[in-house]
Structures are given as C-alpha cells and as structure tokens.
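note to self: dont lose this again. the chain is below, predicted strucutre after it. 140 aa total, dont forget to put it in the shared folder this time
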Amino acid sequence: MAAGDKVLLNYRIEPLDLSVPQATWQIRVTTAEGVTLLVPVGIAVQARAAQLSGPDKIQDGMIRGQTRIIDFVLTNTGAADTGPITFSLPEAPWLQLAHPGPLASLAPGAWVAWSRCCVTMYLKQRLPRQCDSPRRATRS
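---
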C-alpha cells in the first residue's frame, strides 16, 4: 500500500451466545513491513424480534344500512415469529372483526393469508329508529 492510500476492511459478526448483550475487542492490522494498528470494535447484540408491517391508515366509506368489508395485509418484516396476533377495535356497536379470534403466528417474511389473503373488518351501520310519525298538513 502506498502512503496515503486507503483500503476498506469488511468483516461479518455472528453472535454465538445471544445472552451476551454487548462485546468489545480489537482487530490487529499488520503490514508486510511490520507496522501494526489496533482498531477497537464494539457491538451491541439485539435479540431477534418480530415486527408487523401494514397500512399506515385505513380510510373508507360505507352506505347506511349495508355491511362494508375492508381488506388489508399484515406482514412480519422482523426476524422472529410474531406469536398469536390479536386486534383491538374501538368500542362501537357497528364495528366488528369478521374473525374475532387471534390470528396464527406469522414467521419472518410471512404475510396474513386471511379472507382473500387479507384480514377483513365489517362496518355495520344501523339505521336509526323512526320516533316521529309523519306530519300531516292541516288547514287553520
């Protein structure tokens, strides 16, 4: 290597023991002429975790008195299984899930295959009761 030249050093680290949260060591770089450089290295080990990816927002409309089906896809973009997936909806008598039980765990890279490969929510709008009788025109 000539004076002032640079070289890129690539290395790969794979933790053998995930119970060790961090580690430090030195890499010794030595030239053919015997010049040595110690490069300090520090890493933090993160446990593999699941991460769900889906729509940022769901916005749709519906016709009063009809049921509306809304489909969307969930994907596990993480590095571990998700475990059972549950949904929590706001309290509303007209809002319910098509499948209220938890969905099965998703493996890393897997997506929800439910109702046309999607999760389905039903929006049920109830018509208001008619409390007033129709008015009749009267002459005075």
